[in-house]
């Protein structure tokens, strides 16, 4: 008589509703915590620094020029291969991704502390250099965090994991931004920035607790110049050899132009309309925060109901229309109700897009080159909008006003929407997916990165 095979005891997760259960698996929870650390450096050189400079009396054209600090994020693919292929001495024993989480996290803390002690009114150029250093540190941290998240998640978890990552990103950026505003009004910008530097810790702790991803491909030892060049160029060659790769990259470049332009100038609009720090913290940060969380939930539901392609198209349309709401706000003047409505609509739309678009971009990567390829994708996603913001946005606002500027950003969203619709019709969206988005690909560390 054969013995009965013992069954595993029921987990507390089994008692949860089926639609909620995936959010409480280990990998999506880890994606949430690394997302917290990913979001806060962006806030430090984004809306927070914009408010700080505006309150110091810096001109609009100079303030928007600081958006060029974000361009570092768009160049991160240039050194992402290092994260994929260079093993850190001693710390490397913890694993390729975990060791880089520690190094990049410490780099971020030091860079934010350096920015804390700058005086924009006394030396704007030194402040700009400090902001760029935060950008370099934050971009490097993003490279590691994105690779860690994608490799930790199974293909079936990409939608849920992207949502949890976006929850973490928004909580990290919003909490850091709100904390900075509140502390700056009471103890000064120096202490505000130093306190926010602690947001780098969740990703480091997550890596140490959860450990190295099972789907990570260990780098091989490079023994010559040829293998090093292969490690640098290989990830990009693999991507561009895919069917329709140029059109996929074009979509990545175009899809977020309007949203990037509008959001990087938003704090200038609010300052120009006379909103106080407390009003911004309540309506922009507070209402926007909860609306974004709702949007993420809707995005996860939409992804499950209509699939990746249709949910991405819907999110692109909503994000484009959201810019029109700020044109209406600029026409209406200072109104807290109007600001609350705008922030609700914009953040719900962004939350939906944050889930479905990030899930698609994550699925595009090849597990042999996760860090390098996702760095290329995420860098390209906003480069055009950031260049336009840093070089022309301030002058455009001064020339045509905020109302016409936001109508322009609405029209700028159309090319990305139309291109993705065409990609859906021709089957290019399905053809572009890499091994990270395919079931059974790289479920164990059975391969190494060729040449890298």
CATH H-level superfamily: MFS general substrate transporter like domains
CATH top level is: Mainly Alpha
Q: What is the number of helices?
A: 19
From the 3D structure, determine the CATH topology. Answer: Growth Hormone, Chain: A
Average pLDDT score: 82
Number of domains: 1
Low-pLDDT regions? 444-452
Q: What is the terminal separation in angstroms?
A: 54 Å
How large is the radius of gyration?
22 Å
Structural class per helix/strand content?
Answer: mainly alpha
The side-by-side strand order for the widest beta sheet comes to: 1-2
CATH architecture: Up-down Bundle
Give the strand content. under 5%
Largest sheet: 2 strands, parallel
Q: Report the count of strand segments.
A: 2
Helix and strand pattern:
HHHHHHHHHHEHHHHHHHHHE
| Shape estimate | globular
Question: What share of the residues lie within helices?
Answer: over 70%
SSE layout and pairings?
Blueprint: H1 26-45, H2 47-55, H3 60-65, H4 71-74, H5 80-85, H6 96-116, H7 124-152, H8 158-187, H9 189-196, H10 201-210, E1 218-219, H11 225-240, H12 245-254, H13 257-272, H14 277-332, H15 336-363, H16 370-380, H17 383-412, H18 414-426, H19 428-431, E2 448-449
Helix pairs in contact: 1-7, 1-8, 1-10, 2-13, 6-7, 6-9, 6-10, 7-16, 8-9, 8-14, 8-15, 12-18, 13-14, 13-17, 14-15, 14-17, 14-18
């Amino acid at each position: 008589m054969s013995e009965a095979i013992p069954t595993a005891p029921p987990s507390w997760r089994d008692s949860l509703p089926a639609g909620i259960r995936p959010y409480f698996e280990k990998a999506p929870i880890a994606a949430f915590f690394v997302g917290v650390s990913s979001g806060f450096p962006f806030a430090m050189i984004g809306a927070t620094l914009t408010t700080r400079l505006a309150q110091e009396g810096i001109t609009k054209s100079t303030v928007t020029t600081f958006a060029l600090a974000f361009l570092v994020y768009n160049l991160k693919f240039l050194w992402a291969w290092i994260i994929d292929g260079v093993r850190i001495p001693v710390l490397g024993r913890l694993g390729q991704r975990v060791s880089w989480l520690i190094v990049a996290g410490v780099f971020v803390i030091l860079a934010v502390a350096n920015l804390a002690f700058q005086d924009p009114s006394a030396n704007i150029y030194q402040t700009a250099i400090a902001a760029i250093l935060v950008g370099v540190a934050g971009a490097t941290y993003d490279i590691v965090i994105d690779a860690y998240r994608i490799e930790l998640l199974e293909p079936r978890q990409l939608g849920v994991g992207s949502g949890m990552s976006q929850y973490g990103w928004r909580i990290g950026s919003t909490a850091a931004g709100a904390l900075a505003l509140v502390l700056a009004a009471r103890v000064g910008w120096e202490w505000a920035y130093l306190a926010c530097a602690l947001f780098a810790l969740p990703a480091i702790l997550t890596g140490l607790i959860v450990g190295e991803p099972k789907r990570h491909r260990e780098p091989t030892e490079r023994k010559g110049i040829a293998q090093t060049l292969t490690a640098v160029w290989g990830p990009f060659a693999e991507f561009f050899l895919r069917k329709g790769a140029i059109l996929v990259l074009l979509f990545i470049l175009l899809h977020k132009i309007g949203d990037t332009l509008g959001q990087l100038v938003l704090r200038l609009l609010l300052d120009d309309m006379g909103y106080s720090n407390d009003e911004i913290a309540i309506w922009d940060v507070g209402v926007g925060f909860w609306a974004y969380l709702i949007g993420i939930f809707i995005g996860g539901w939409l992804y499950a109901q209509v699939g990746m392609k249709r949910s991405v198209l819907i999110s692109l349309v909503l994000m484009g229309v959201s810019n029109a709401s700020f044109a209406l706000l600029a026409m209406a003047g200072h109104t807290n109700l109007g600001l609350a409505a705008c922030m609700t609509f914009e953040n719900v739309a962004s939350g939906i897009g944050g889930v479905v678009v990030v899930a698609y971009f994550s699925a595009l990567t090849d597990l042999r080159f996760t860090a390098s390829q996702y760095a290329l994708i995420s860098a390209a996603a906003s480069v055009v909008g950031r260049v336009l913001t840093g070089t022309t946005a301030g002058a455009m606002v001064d020339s045509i006003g905020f109302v016409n500027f936001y109508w322009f950003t609405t029209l700028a969203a159309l090319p990305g929407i139309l291109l993705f619709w065409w990609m859906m019709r021709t089957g290019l969206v399905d053809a572009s997916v890499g091994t990270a988005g395919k079931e059974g690909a790289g479920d164990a560390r059975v391969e190494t990165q060729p040449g890298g």
